[in-house]
Amino acid sequence: MTRRNGSVIKYIVFIVLFLGVVYFIYMHNKVNEKLKDTERTAERYRREQESCSSQLQESLIQLLVQKKSFLLFQTQNDDLQAEYSKLNLDLQKDKEEQKQVESQRNQEYMQLKQEKELELTSLKDQLANLGREKQQLADEVNSLRTQLQNAQVKMNNELPHPKSPQ
């Protein structure tokens, strides 16, 4: 019976070993499947990571380009604002100069107008004086004519008159 028991034990050990090997192979296959799934998942994540890294790199390049463009536009904007301010100041200066020139011209015009009005008044006075002098001279000429005529008449009256042939 011991032989039989020894055979049974051998069979049991053999079955246990066989089941252990089958279990080991099963577990080995299962672990290999999980490993392959994990490798596939890791590969997928790696590709996604590479894609994300590539997109990130492109985004960074775009960001740098946009930043450079922004800085360029900002510099241009600052330059244009400075130029605008300068032109605005120049315009204000020109307006002030124009006002001063107009004011000076108005003053010169008013002064010239006053001078011309004074000159005109002076000329009118001179004309009036000349008119009075002319009248006075005309009166004197008339007076002298009258005196001359009176003197001629008197002289004619005092001189003997030749008798006219009759």
TrEMBL record:
Against InterPro entries, the record matches this protein to: GOLIM4 (IPR042336)
One Gene Ontology term, aspect cellular component = Golgi membrane
Q: Where are the transmembrane segments?
A: 6-26
Q: Which branch of life, at top level? A: Eukaryota
UniProt keyword annotations, A-Z: Coiled coil, Membrane, Transmembrane, Transmembrane helix
Q: Which residues form a coiled coil?
A: 28-154
Report the protein name in the record.
Answer: Uncharacterized protein
* Organism whose genome encodes this protein: Pinctada imbricata
